[in-house]
């Protein structure tokens, strides 16, 4: 991935995903990455990955690795990045200097204790807690004496009149009066810049045209717009996405039981199915429920983003996954099943029988894990069956027919028509109906009475396995 910030024409769409690496990335986070990725792809623009790692105490490389791994698995690799904010500190300090020179920033010596006392007093007076502008320089105003040995924070000199307004692509027109915004701290006493300031500098330098993010950032947006304007820059277009709720109706988060996105890969979900499912958590294209990655890109528009919170439903996700498994190429599906088997340290299986197994079983499986379960059960050396089914179907009365079928299968041509003919002749010779023979055959060769068509199953397993399992009772 390219880690250079490029200078491109402003007309080109440039979006970004800017996670904080303070924990694993979950589906709510990925949904916030999916739409900017799709918008960039649908318009021929660029998708940038920025790691907002200024929370040094909580940020970890392991969390960064999961972000990169998750995006790679989903096929959402960025065009540029990852960029790391902690590697851009010199640039932030340079821009801070520009704001100081232009009078948009001033030092504030109010201590944390003084600020807490101020907020307590304001709350007691039923007022909105906010900084009171004590150290804000104004014409004709006398500032307090600078306390000795105190390192100040730097505050942004927010405009005091008028409104901050933007046309949000999800929420519509939003207007905030400047008098409701206090002067934001944009640098800590040690000179480290704060989140809202870094975001603006990054978006300017990376020429971000559209910011598509969760609506928990709505309150940050007017502050960021004012910093853009102070720096003489045009703010991007904003689209604030509704929250993704978990199955209990709570905001999806690490603390509320959300899983790392890579866990869904391990549980046998397909990347394209995840894209399909997540796309529908806040966007729609008519009544279409199942669509390909390319269709999503072709259809995607910010105008079709929903305004209501979407609720995650794992049963619906499994259904979507099942539809994608059914339509997936057997060879590609077999490779994913082989990866599942490798994780289990299962015996090495040739790809050819796995391809045939996928073709036969994919209509009844909703994950590649379920397909791998069938592969282990059927293609290994031994097959175990449930005792209850063995007792139910493997009776003394059916034994002669099973012996006769084993003999016929040992001698016939090994293809589905010939296998079906051998079964049909055995039924006729023993005066039996199909279920009377097919169920015990399934139990012996597959360990369960619930399988696809018995002739197709036998063809898949091969003569040697089938005859041996029919004889081993």
TrEMBL record:
Short sequence motif named 'HIGH' region, residue ranges: 19-29
Domain spans labelled Glutamyl/glutaminyl-tRNA synthetase class Ib catalytic: 13-319
Domain of life: Bacteria
CDD domains membership: GluRS_core
SUPFAM superfamilies xrefs: An anticodon-binding domain of class I aminoacyl-tRNA synthetases, Nucleotidylyl transferase
Signal sequence interval, chain numbering: none
Annotated family: Belongs to the class-I aminoacyl-tRNA synthetase family. Glutamate--tRNA ligase type 1 subfamily.
Role played: Catalyzes the attachment of glutamate to tRNA(Glu) in a two-step reaction: glutamate is first activated by ATP to form Glu-AMP and then transferred to the acceptor end of tRNA(Glu).
Name the UniProt record assigns to this protein: Glutamate--tRNA ligase
Gene: gltX
